[in-house]
């Protein structure tokens, strides 16, 4: 193999398999798969795809739970020069019909349980349905001698979460994925000695594009779990076998809850922690409440590193690994990437401290939306700047703060209300475990503010009158929620983002 830098994640995998074949790559329960084995199993899938008539550029849908077989099948898709279509296993008929009709895959992989949900949708677009198990057969490993994908070739279609509308297929190239992994690896000092405890779903860019790709580029290893189970994950984090953990904010709150469930009152009040034996805990995919970060550090002795990314770009901005991790901010741009804040209407670049839309630019940005040039033109400028749709501002020393989605901005009586500001205040109230702030139509003001509360003690929900007084003490009048709704849980997507349109629908607020 060449000593030149790899041209893709696949090239990195094959390099490690050739130069250090016995190095552990993947741990799954009691099984360990070496780099040589993972590369060989992926090559077996690639040869299967080619024998079935798959050509370069053909799409192959992956509707599989997190497992070793998902991982090697995904790598096999890319080895064969095809395009992986990542499909959320929580999706059902409406979403599946849309994604398959949009991507038109030649083939769809699923397990036996998935046939019920995706079989009809696959048939409707003429895709071959391949039913596989979630376990791998080592005898299927072969040596790969074909060419690796070209940097500018399409590697995957990753569909946006659809929290603000119909999901779109983000076109991610091999060079873009590689550039993002290089930036993250440099920023987080990722090395071959690291082991990532991975409980995130592999169908999402967080688990796959950050966790798996970063590991393979560094020649490190993954301990893959099929799902997040708080008590089990906490035990694993304490085992000393892992150096890295990536999670969404909800996972960190659940880990705190798991600690409290089994700890004594004295230990909860004064945990005096032995720090978790990890070198890095990262949070992303949704806002991390400052109080969650502080409480996690108090209990577990670990300062969470919050970062900011999205499906179309991978990772954009992150708090510093070896510097300040400022609560409430997402940090500074990753190496070889840029960010700026622009006026929502004029698109002029704004000075530090001014609130506007965040734009990012760099080799990690996607190539556009699949078969949707109009949507691409709305977000991707000719000079390479990508309009994230997120509102925020930059401090004088370069730290970015996200205040919410542009589409979630509430305009009431001519005043702008940023839901996250109100949500963070409510989360400081001891009776509030989770909350979501919404704007609902108002015949006089245009919109008014509504808050949905998940109580910290379900048997003792907060009195809305007390919450009103609390908000009156801390917020301008136009920012205060007019009504409070109490719910047992907020509807979230697979990555922990609150689905506010679904929440409005359930509450009859549309």
Automatic annotation (TrEMBL):
SUPFAM superfamilies: Acetyl-CoA synthetase-like. Keywords: Ligase. The keyword Repeat does not apply. InterPro entries: AMP-bd_C, AMP-bd_C_sf, AMP-binding_CS, AMP-dep_synth/lig_dom, ANL_N_sf. One of its GO terms (molecular function) is medium-chain fatty acid-CoA ligase activity. The keyword Ligase applies. One of its GO terms (biological process) is fatty acid metabolic process. Pfam families: AMP-binding (PF00501), AMP-binding_C (PF13193). Belongs to the ATP-dependent AMP-binding enzyme family. This is Long-chain fatty acid--CoA ligase. The lineage of its organism: Bacteria, Bacillati, Chloroflexota, Chloroflexia, Chloroflexales.
């Amino acid at each position: 193999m060449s000593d030149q830098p790899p041209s893709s994640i696949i090239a990195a995998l094959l390099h490690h398999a050739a130069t250090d074949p016995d190095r552990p790559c993947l741990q799954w329960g009691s099984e360990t798969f070496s780099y040589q084995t993972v590369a060989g199993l992926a090559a077996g899938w690639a040869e299967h795809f080619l024998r079935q008539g798959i050509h370069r550029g053909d799409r192959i849908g992956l509707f599989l739970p997190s497992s070793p077989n998902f991982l090697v099948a995904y790598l096999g898709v890319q080895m064969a020069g095809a395009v992986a279509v990542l499909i959320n296993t929580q999706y059902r008929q409406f979403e599946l019909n849309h994604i398959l009709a949009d991507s038109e895959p030649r083939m769809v992989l699923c397990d036996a349980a998935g046939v019920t949900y995706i079989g009809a949708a696959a048939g409707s677009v003429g895709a071959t349905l391949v039913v596989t198990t979630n376990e791998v057969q080592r005898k299927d490993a072969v040596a790969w001698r074909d060419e690796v994908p070209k940097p500018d070739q399409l590697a995957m279609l990753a569909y946006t979460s659809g929290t603000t509308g119909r999901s779109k297929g983000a076109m991610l190239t091999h060079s873009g994925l590689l550039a993002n992994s290089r930036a993250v690896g440099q920023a987080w000092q990722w090395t071959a000695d690291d082991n990532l405890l991975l409980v995130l779903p592999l169908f999402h860019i967080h688990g796959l594009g950050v966790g798996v790709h970063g590991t393979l580029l560094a020649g490190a290893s993954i301990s893959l779990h099929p799902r997040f189970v708080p008590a089990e994950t906490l035990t694993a984090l304490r085992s000393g076998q892992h150096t890295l953990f990536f999670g969404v904010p909800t996972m960190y709150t659940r880990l705190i809850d798991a600690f409290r469930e089994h700890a004594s009152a004295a230990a909860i009040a004064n945990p005096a922690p032995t720090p978790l034996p990890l070198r890095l805990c990262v949070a992303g995919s949704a806002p991390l409440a400052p109080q969650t970060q502080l409480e996690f550090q108090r209990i577990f002795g670990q300062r969470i590193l919050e970062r900011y990314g999205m499906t179309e770009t991978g990772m954009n901005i992150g708090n510093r690994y070896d510097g300040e991790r400022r609560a409430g901010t997402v940090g500074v741009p990753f190496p070889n990437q840029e960010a700026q804040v622009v006026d929502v209407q004029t698109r002029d670049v704004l000075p530090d401290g001014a609130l506007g839309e965040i734009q990012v630019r760099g080799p990690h940005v996607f190539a556009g939306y699949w078969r949707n040039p109009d949507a691409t033109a709305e977000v991707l400028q000719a000079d390479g700047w990508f309009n994230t749709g997120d509102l925020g501002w930059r401090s004088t020393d370069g730290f970015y703060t996200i205040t919410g989605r542009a589409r979630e901005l509430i305009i009431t009586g001519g005043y702008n209300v940023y839901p996250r500001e109100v949500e963070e205040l409510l989360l400081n109230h001891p009776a509030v475990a989770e909350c979501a702030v919404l704007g609902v139509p108002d015949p006089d003001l245009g919109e008014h503010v509504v808050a949905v509360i998940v109580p910290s003690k379900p048997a003792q929900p907060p009195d809305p009158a007390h919450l009103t007084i609390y908000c009156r003490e801390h917020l301008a009048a136009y920012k205060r929620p007019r009504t409070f709704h109490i719910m047992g849980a907020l509807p979230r997507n697979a990555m922990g983002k609150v689905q506010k349109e679904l929440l409005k629908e359930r509450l009859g607020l549309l």
